[in-house]
Design a protein that fits this description.
about 120 residues, mainly alpha, 2 domains, about 65% helix, binds zinc ion
Length: about 120
């Protein structure tokens, strides 16, 4: 493993820990909002508080999803580092430019093929 790849792996490991932490925090927040909305049952349906809570639930839910997706990408990148395939485009096999990996360490393709495996 090159020094650069080792540094990237260390970076991704830190990112991963942060992401796990973030997901835990968001889940806790989500539970609090759910608990608050349950405590609200029986109140006036048109209570503006109720719609705020529903909105918050949706927002937090979306953030959790996003963080989980990022976590999956980080894990996949770490796996590619372990396999030795990291930094190569999955479509054409060319090396992914360093600047791209810097901006997006979980990138699986070169810029030309970035759209090829978009979700
Ligand atoms: Zn490519």
């Amino acid at each position: 493993m090159s020094t650069k790849t080792a540094a990237r792996a260390a970076e991704l490991t830190v990112d991963r820990a942060n992401e796990v932490e973030r997901i835990l925090g968001l889940r806790r927040e989500f539970e609090e909002v759910v608990a608050a909305s349950e405590a609200n049952v029986g109140d006036d349906e048109h209570d503006p508080e109720g719609s705020t809570i529903a909105y918050e639930r949706t927002q937090i839910g979306a953030l959790i999803e996003q963080a989980e997706r990022h976590l999956t990408e980080i894990d996949a990148a770490l796996q590619r580092i372990a396999d030795g395939g990291y930094g190569r485009c999955e479509v054409c096999g060319e090396a992914i430019p360093e600047e791209r990996l810097q901006a997006r360490p979980t990138a699986r393709t070169c810029i030309a093929h970035a759209g090829a495996i978009l979700r």
